[in-house]
Amino acid sequence: MRPLLLLGLAGILAVIASVSIGSSSMGLAEALAVLLGGGSELQQTLILDLRLPRTLSAFAVGGLLAVAGALMQILLRNPLADPYVLGLSGGAAVGALVAMLSGLAGWLVSGSAFAGAMFATLLVFGLAHGRGSWTSSRLLLTGVVVAAGWGALITLMLAMAPARQLPGMLYWLMGDLSHAGNPWPALVILLLASLLVVPLGRTLNVLARGPLQAAALGVSVRPLEWLIYLLASLLTATAVTQAGSIGFVGLVVPHMLRLVLGNDQRLILPACALAGGALLVLADTLARVIIAPEQLPVGVITALLGVPTFLYLLYRSR
């Protein structure tokens, strides 16, 4: 319980720091005053209307990706699995880029991205199932091949796109929170998913040891695997719809927490929601201020932060 409290505190501090830091900085006391209902009208507009929605979107997306990554690693029993390994981000990217090339409004771009991610989910599941039941290795191979196909379509659309539309398309592909919409649906989905997976933690611990051992201990393996796949797909689709393709969070955060906290899914999964959210909030804050007033894609920052941290922890672990 103590690690979750510490991670929760870290998340709160990351949110407060994010809304305090920017091109027009203010002290932590002033930011807290605004969050508690005080402050001037200008400060309220700056924090409540501009910075806080983006910060909450970053927290939700980070938590969604980290939990989805942890679930994918359990489902595929592969330490290299991440939320995008089955081609969901590619399907979402194709849907979003088609909407951008068609000149559709921003909310339609998000809707197209979500539809593309769900289509990719059904496509991979249908192809992996084939004429019999699917296995984790078959699902993984199918996802990798489908992801390669999506990558080819994305390259084709970028090559054919008008020059004026390329910057927005590239920023979406690299992960961009500057145009993130209403954060509350993503936060609600993150909360509901966390509440759902915690009671399944003991069963997931058994499943992580292998399907044969889980079945021998009375676990309904196939329905549980379907639930994990659908839940991870929904979390990933929601995150990609909100902020584009942000890499490394879903791969690095679950591994970091396992190196520090062990491999109990009852602790790892809620910890992923908190740690992933805090990490992406800090990364987005850096993306906003490093070359202000210009902004960097947040996916670049997550890679620069996550990779050396993960390698250091891996080096120090036994």
Automatic annotation (TrEMBL):
InterPro entries with a match to the protein in the record: ABC_BtuC-like (IPR037294), ABC_transptr_permease_BtuC (IPR000522)
Source taxon at top rank: Bacteria
Transmembrane segments: 57-76, 83-101, 107-127, 139-163, 183-202, 268-290, 296-315
This protein's record includes keyword Cell membrane: yes
Topological category with respect to the lipid bilayer: Multi-pass membrane protein
SUPFAM superfamilies associated with the record: ABC transporter involved in vitamin B12 uptake, BtuC
Entry keywords, A to Z: Cell membrane, Membrane, Transmembrane, Transmembrane helix, Transport
Intracellular or extracellular location(s): Cell membrane
Entry-linked Pfam families: FecCD
Primary localization class, coarse: membrane
Record bears the keyword Transmembrane helix: yes
Family: Belongs to the binding-protein-dependent transport system permease family. FecCD subfamily.
Annotated protein name in UniProt: Iron ABC transporter permease
Source organism: Marinobacter salinisoli
Taxon lineage: Bacteria, Pseudomonadati, Pseudomonadota, Gammaproteobacteria, Pseudomonadales
